[in-house]
Design brief:
- Helices cover 40% and strands 18% of the residues.
- It has a single domain, classed as Alpha/Beta hydrolase fold, catalytic domain (Rossmann fold), CATH 3.40.50.
Length: 289
């Protein structure tokens, strides 16, 4: 099989859009891959140096081959999108940014895949724009609030904070080593690429720390409103997730009327990367049936 990297590159699919939505006036970066009557938007997590492409490059080709258009958004304050300081809900800020991008691209209705912060943002978008969502896939996030079993903040969230404050290769390795279940899959090249990405935008790092100081609870607890979301939803979790505990997935399953939950054993916070082939098959089956 031809690999995604040989068919699509980050550079060849790179696009920018100016959005004005909900008080935001920003230039957003996104990748636009494939063509099709239906569009899948992918929203990345909050780790330093994250981007749509970095989070989801293992998941693009099967969707494009199946006839979907794929949009990978870099949220405000990440990668090549404009910087921003979030004094309120980052979930809702990202939801407004997504609405602005969909308006620019003239997309009325999309499926959304959200990982971690991206899952929180997906839920916020679904609550604000129910008529614009198809099916939802949430991994490692979707609502805030305390875990019933794991002390807060979790080990992983503490390591993210440390990396934002001190962006060193040592702190990056500490975070990434608990990001996935099997750290042997992490290469020095991957570490260096991620470090280069996060150091390229020190303004993003500084603004994230400033935002967290202004409002420590960037990602609200939507549990009391989950019943409002009528979209079919696939929840995907790693049993060994050390960033967002698995009981968060159970709360989402209890609150979302049309949800189903799949749990991967031997899997951390990045299910779409650690179990890419199975994840891709599962997503395609969920979207097409």
């Amino acid at each position: 099989m031809t690999t995604t990297a040989s068919v699509f590159t980050e550079a060849s699919t790179s696009r920018f859009a100016r959005i004005k939505e909900g008080g935001l006036d920003l230039q957003l970066h996104y990748n636009d891959v494939g063509q099709g009557a239906e569009t899948v938007v992918m929203l990345h997590g909050s780790g330093p140096g994250a981007s749509g492409w970095a989070n989801f490059h293992r998941n693009i080709e099967p969707l494009v081959t199946a006839g979907y258009r794929v949009i990978l958004l870099d949220c405000p304050g990440w990668s090549k999108s404009d910087p921003v300081v979030s004094e309120g809900s980052r979930s809702n800020l990202n939801a407004s940014a997504l609405k602005g991008l969909l308006d620019v691209l003239d997309l009325d209705r999309v499926h959304i895949i959200g990982n971690s912060m991206g899952a929180h943002s997906t839920v916020a978008f679904a609550l604000e724009n129910p008529e614009r969502i198809g099916k939802l896939i949430l991994m490692g996030g979707g609502t805030g609030g305390p875990s019933a079993f794991v002390p807060q903040p979790t080990e992983g969230i503490k390591l993210i904070g440390a990396l934002y404050r001190e962006p060193t290769i040592e702190n990056l390795k500490k975070m990434m080593n608990v990001f996935v279940f099997d750290a042997s899959s992490l290469t020095e090249e991957l570490f260096q690429t991620r470090l280069d990405n996060l150091l390229a935008r020190r303004d993003h790092l500084e603004n994230f720390v400033k935002s967290s100081t202004l409002n420590p609870k960037q990602f609200p607890d939507f549990s009391h409103r989950l019943h409002e979301i009528s979209a079919e939803t696939l929840l995907v979790w790693g049993r060994e997730d050390r960033f967002v505990p698995m009981d968060t997935g159970l709360r989402l399953l209890a609150g979302l009327p049309k949800a189903q939950l799949h749990v991967f054993n031997r899997c951390g916070h990045w299910a779409q990367w650690e179990h890419a082939d199975t994840f891709n098959r599962m997503v395609l089956d969920f979207l097409t049936h």
